[in-house]
What does this fold into?
Amino acid sequence: MTTDELDPLIHVPTRLKIVATLAALPDGDTLSFTRLQDLIGLTPGNLIIHLRKLEDADYINSEKARNGTVSITTVALTGHGRAALDAYTQALRDLLGGL
Amino acid sequence: MNHTSDATTSDGGGTFDARQAAALLDQTTQQARRQFAPSPPWLLATRAVAVLAVCGTVWLTVRGQHPYHGPTAVVIPVLVAFIILNFFVTVAVRERAMTGVRGVSRLRPAEITVLVAAFAATVVFMATAGVSFGHYPTTVLILPGLAYAAVMARTGWRRCGVGLAVAAVGVAGAFAGPAGSWAVTGVGLCAVLGVRAAAIALGQRRDADRP
It folds into this structure.
């Protein structure tokens, strides 16, 4: 097995951090865009690009809610995204165990 | 020739091999769990030691009283200060951990109401029954402990178990006599908080050791 077989959507440092951070929350919890940005340490533009790629693959779900005049964007890992991370983690284990 | 590649080009530039990916995954997961923990082990352990010290001090001052007349005027401010400080530190740490988090981890307004109502009902019941907190200190743990267990049942058995254990300490203290109940409160709550802190710390270490 090689790294070429690892999920290319997750096997990128920034997206791996995003997915791992969201996976640390219990199922059913969402995280605000600003807190995620603080935790990952990315510029908003850069984070949006990575989130869009993950959302296109149905790995994450984002929602925009209005709180008075303020609009809050929240993101959460989908069941599909959680399964993809589990498969990625298992693939990493297999790969490292074989090295 | 059997060509195998164990490194790949990342979107951010450069290569990202399997070892780096495993290390980053591990580090990010642990960091995120620490950041999202509403009751970190250090806080629980500190609270365990503090409750043992405060209740132990009260017990030392009341154990020789015959007849029993409750904590002295010197100890009561320490007890009140501990309760207030504990409340504010708990709320501050929880708010910091839960900033930006919505969903099942957050207490719902109805659940907060249930917890406050359980505590208020206990205070009102004690006042109407003419029961002094100084004589039966553990009684305030029973109903709020059960309410916490009921509210936390939806998040899993661990937090529910903490609530039940707190209620059990309250029941045990009711049979220990006025002076003895302070010792039961201190030792019981210290044990509950200590076990919870150890369980969380062990879980985090197990995750860190996982290959």
Summary: Confidence is low (pLDDT under 50) at residues 1-7 of chain B. Residues 36-209 of chain B form one domain.
